[in-house]
Specification:
With 182 residues, the chain is of the alpha+beta class. It has 9 helices and 5 strands. A hairpin with a 2-residue loop joins strand 1 and strand 2. The protein is globular, with a radius of gyration of 20 Å. The protein starts with a helix and ends in a 5-residue tail after the last helix. It holds the Pfam family SMC_ScpB. Keywords: Cell cycle, Cell division, Chromosome partition, Cytoplasm. InterPro entries: ScpB_csome_segregation, WH-like_DNA-bd_sf, WH_DNA-bd_sf. This is Segregation and condensation protein B.
């Protein structure tokens, strides 16, 4: 393992959040973005090698890189209460979050028009949990606030980018295949 890979491994081990490539690059001023990416690719290949048998993996999500326990160990770790469980989102929060994720930047009035109910309390809760943020103001009457998702949203849903959200046509197929009541 190269010295750069060891340095990245130490930084990722010490961090509890996804670390963006730019922050990882700051660890070694002489390393190019390509050097850092190659070292990350090497680390991921090392952890994924069945010969070495690691219980964790290097994952790109939430706009950065993070070392995570492999999913097959999550049930035992939760049972032993060693991991902090993320708080569940209500149906209203999930609906509002989905609207914001797919339509961002979006104002409160537009979200309320789509949902058909007031979302002030839900927006406040999502802001407090760091899943959405105020990303600007609309040019419309009263210059209302616009909301967008955050890197914490990507991290919570294990997404690298918003482009990984299912497309509308994929959602329709998934709902037809699994016709559970909503």
């Amino acid at each position: 393992m190269s010295p750069l890979a060891k340095l990245l491994e130490a930084a990722l081990f010490a961090s509890s959040r996804p670390v963006p490539l730019d922050e990882l690059r700051a660890l070694d001023a002489e390393a190019s973005p390509e050097d850092v990416q190659a070292a990350l690719d090497g680390l991921r290949a090392h952890y994924d090698d069945p010969e070495t048998g690691h219980s964790f993996e290097l994952v790109e999500q939430g706009g950065g890189w993070q070392l995570l326990t492999r999913a097959e160990y999550s049930e035992a770790i939760e049972r032993a209460q060693l991991a902090q469980r993320p708080q569940r989102l209500s149906a209203a929060s999930l609906e509002t979050l989905a609207i914001i994720a797919y339509r961002q930047p979006i104002g409160r009035a537009e979200v309320e028009e789509i949902r058909g109910v007031s979302v002030g309390g839900v927006l406040k809760a999502l802001l407090e949990r760091g899943l959405i943020d105020i990303v600007g103001r609309s040019e419309g009457l009263g210059r209302p606030l616009l909301y967008g998702t955050t890197s914490a949203f990507l991290e919570q849903f294990a997404l690298r980018h918003l482009e990984e959200l299912p497309r509308a046509d994929e959602l329709a197929i998934a709902l037809r295949a699994d016709p559970r009541p909503l």
